[in-house]
Amino acid sequence: MRYLSIDVGSYRFVARLEEEAAPRTCAAFLKLLPFSNQVIHSRWSGEAVWVPLGDFDTGLGFENHTSHPSRGDLLLYPGGFSETEILFAYGSSQFASKMGQLAGNHFLTVVEGADQLMDMGRTVLWKGAQPIRFTDLGEL
């Protein structure tokens, strides 16, 4: 299994790539690494933060998609009804936008650092945008 490091501000997580369930999404994301951006609090999705990617064309369709990510799940929304984005659930979440309910490809699952998820989410909520960086850790 392959893992990524996810740094959000001062918080660090290790996440497992869901390569069996979402092979095309994982392969496409790996090509972007290392990947850095800003994460902001979601407006419609509950306890989640997101990385807006605008009109970035992932070339992907839906695979292993869900509207109800679990705590520590990361979804890649390939675009369509709303802009392309990465959603990072830190608590109770239902993926949505101003267009309504969305589904995104579940491609990463936090396996280390889950005890920091709520603090990370509250930091983004109350202190604003935070830097986010994804780095390949390889197979552990």
List the main descriptive attributes of the protein structure presented here.
11 strands; 140 residues; Cyclophilin; eight-stranded antiparallel beta barrel; globular; mainly beta; two-stranded antiparallel ribbon; 2 helices
Quick structural gist:
This protein is mostly beta strands and 140 residues long.
CATH level 1 name: Mainly Beta
Distance linking N and C termini? 7 Å
The profile of the biggest β sheet is: 8 strands, antiparallel, barrel
* Widest sheet: strand ordering: 1-2-10-6-7-4-3-11
Helices, strands, pairings?
Elements: E1 2-8, E2 11-17, H1 23-30, E3 35-41, E4 46-52, E5 65-66, E6 73-77, E7 85-93, E8 96-97, E9 100-101, E10 104-112, H2 117-127, E11 130-139
Antiparallel strand pairs: 1-2, 1-11, 2-10, 3-4, 3-11, 4-7, 5-10, 6-7, 6-10, 8-9
